[in-house]
Write a structure and sequence with these properties.
Mean pLDDT: 82
Order of helices and strands: HHHHHHHHHHHHH
Radius of gyration: 27 Å
Number of strands: 0
Number of domains: 1
Largest sheet: none
Low-confidence stretches: none
Strand content: under 5%
Oligomer: single chain
Number of helices: 13
């Protein structure tokens, strides 16, 4: 479970409560049903017009898997896994539990090379790069949709403020100055919720989706580079040095990572010796 994101949402709720509602003399005014219907209902209607339902299914998956329960796919582990496959071992001969822990893109690319043994390096590279690019575009849509949705709540909040002011001005001649203050407050409630919803929910989620997409793009770039070198039968030591270039210097010197790399290289050397 992603405790950081959950803590952020709890803190956001606390900011709204203690910063706005708790110290207001009339906190019930912020729950004006007309303002909430206009902001929430307007945002929902605009969202359904802008994007198909399938896209919101993907957003739901992102909220569950990307925000609440994000997978732990570190670059160091992916590099170690690529080195494990550098000995060109048949997948059926691998430990099933170990194979299941590999990145799905690494599994797919490795099985592709084992299935089509006559495939050329140029063809293999073209297929991998094409699949990598399509997945990057697919995941980038989550951030694009959330960023697009973030513009709707403030707009409908402004619309609520405008309609509230129109109603206030129409009653000005009959109610006098006693209606100006309360009516103006109600008119601005919609603006408040529109700004809060955009800046505390949609925009942070869009930034998180963009960050996760960048991390996944990095992992897929590492896997693609490693698989191409494996297919070209490059020495595993050279593959290791090439892939470690994707990591910052401090991560390359991490003791646990070095142990995993040496373990993978020893397994490769053992298989080569046994085959000889």
């Amino acid at each position: 479970m992603n405790l950081t994101a959950i803590s952020g949402f709890i803190l956001a709720a606390g900011v709204v409560w203690f910063g706005v509602l708790a110290h207001n003399g009339h906190p019930q005014i912020f729950w004006d049903q007309h303002a909430l219907i206009l902001v929430l209902g307007g945002t929902l209607s605009a969202a359904l017009i802008a994007f198909p339902l399938r896209q919101y299914k993907d957003i739901g998956s992102f909220l569950f898997l990307g925000v609440l329960f994000p997978p732990r796919k570190q670059a160091k582990k992916v590099i170690a896994d690529v080195l494990l496959l550098a000995g060109r071992l048949e997948p059926s001969a691998m430990d099933p539990a170990l194979w299941a822990q590999l990145h799905p893109y690494l599994q797919e690319g490795y099985l592709l090379a084992r299935k089509h043994r006559a495939i050329t390096s140029a063809e293999y590279k073209m297929i991998l790069l094409g699949r990598r690019q399509r997945m990057i575009e697919r995941y980038s849509w989550d951030a694009k949709v959330l960023t697009a949705l973030a513009k709707f709540p403030p707009a409908f909040g402004l619309l609520g403020a405008s309609t509230g002011m129109i109603a206030m001005m129409s009653d000005l001649g009959t109610g006098g100055k006693e209606v100006i203050g309360p009516s103006m407050a109600i008119a601005l409630v919609a603006t408040f919720w529109g700004i809060a919803l955009a800046n505390l929910v949609f925009l942070p989620l869009a930034d998180r989706a963009a960050r996760l997409n960048n991390e996944d793009e990095k992992l897929r770039t590492i896997v693609t580079s490693g698989l191409i070198l494996i297919h070209e039968q490059v020495d595993p030591a050279i593959i290791c040095e090439h892939l470690m270039g994707f990591l910052p210097l401090d991560e390359r010197e991490d003791a646990r990572f070095q142990k995993a790399v040496f373990g993978a290289q020893n397994q490769i050397a053992g298989r080569v010796k046994k085959a000889a």
